Amino acid sequence: MCSRAGGGDRQEATVTEAFAKPNDPSSSPSSDEKRAAKDMEQAHDYAAEVDPKKVLLKMDLHLIPMLALLYLLSFLDRGNIGNARIEGLLETLEMTGPQYNWCLTVFFFTYCIFEVPSNLLLKKLRPSIWLPTIMVAWGTVMTLMGVVQNFEGLLIARLFLGVTEAGLYPGVAYYITMWYCRTEAQFRQAMFFSAASVAGAFSGLLAFAIAVSIPRRTPGHEAYT
């Protein structure tokens, strides 16, 4: 499977070169070289027994569903403001149409600015730390968005939502390339990105369920929260 199998051949060639001159006393193999040759032989035997398709399937089952779920939740968070408007967001916060449009737009300001810095942090902190961290961060921002009282509060919440969600898509795209070869990563990227369509399909149903369970007339519990 492309680069995953290429390293062993190069190392095997290096070990073979170590035994290339048996008549030269200075080139006689040391104990470390013998141990390296034995380890390489064992690794070669093990690699011959591994089924690449089974390994690839195992990677798919462990990585792609969880990454797609993260992206689905991200799209639900950034897109639910449209459903909130239907349920009375403008009236409750006393906002105008242009103010609502600004709340939609400012999200992409910080989202675009922080994509590259987020990937730089991803390389330093490892995906196992960075991706869960930004997930908790945008969940916190979305929770606090439910208690905003005016246009300014919603605007600031949307700015911070762009900061926290900026690292997910480029980070996952980079993370997939760490596990898959180039020819394998393309299909996995498409599967991951398809979660956005699923989010669009279910966000309306989720908003309807919330609106029915928490009607507008309940004081202090507007359905858009």
Please sum up the structure shown.
This protein has helices spanning 3-18, 31-49, 52-86, 89-93, 97-113, 115-125, 127-145, 151-165, 168-179, 182-193, 195-213. It is mainly alpha-helical and 225 residues long.
What does this structure look like?
The chain has 225 residues and is mainly alpha-helical. It contains 11 helices and no strands. It is elongated.
SSE topology sketch:
Blueprint lengths: L2 H16 L12 H19 L2 H35 L2 H5 L3 H17 L1 H11 L1 H19 L5 H15 L2 H12 L2 H12 L1 H19 L12
Helix pairs in contact: 1-2, 3-9, 3-10, 3-11, 5-8, 6-7, 6-9, 7-8, 7-9, 9-10
Give short descriptive properties of this protein:
single chain, 225 residues, mainly alpha, 11 helices, 80% helix
Portion in helices: over 70%
Q: Indicate the structural class.
A: mainly alpha
Question: Order of helices and strands, N to C?
Answer: HHHHHHHHHHH
Structural shape = elongated
Number of helical elements: 11
Total number of strands:
0
Average of per-residue pLDDT values: 78
Distance between the termini: 49 Å
Beta content comes to under 5%
Rg = 26 Å
Low-confidence stretches: 5-25
| Largest sheet data | none
